[in-house]
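batch job 7 of whatever, protein = MFS transporter
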Amino acid sequence: MFTLFLYPVGNALFTLISGFVSDKFGRKITIIAMSCSALACYLLFILSGMFKWTPYLTGFAIGGFMGSYWGAGDTIGGIMFSESSPTNLRSSVTVINTLINGVMGALATVISMILLPVIPEKMFGYMYLGLTVPGLVGAIVIMWLFVGETRGLDLKKVTGTEWDKPKKIKEETQEGE
């Protein structure tokens, strides 16, 4: 009961934070920060449940995870894709994101269905950490290394090549010329 009391508080707080962070510091920073927050909250939720810490912490942690996760996801899917895709591709990019989310969710569900009957109940938390943590860490690394900031872009001028590295033009010169 106490867990359910603080779940919406954590969820609302972290969702609210993601909006302010996005407008103040940019989309890329928001996605990285909220993914890190989701990772920390999820670890806290699992540990709190496994070690029977206070139910208030358990509820707040899972709410914080959900708010952080959806805050990062909405920033990617709802804002960043729109700001970084040319007008004629925006819907396609958003649909591809939804498709990938569905495929990954289905894959995690199948893995859970296979593992739950064969692993001891005490290992459930570790199993869910194993399903969640690699994706969050991978998303953080990809965002950090390969994605450009979209805050402040003029949507009418987006071509999709704003972050492409300039191609090096090789000047072929022959000896003696």
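notes: The mean pLDDT is 82.
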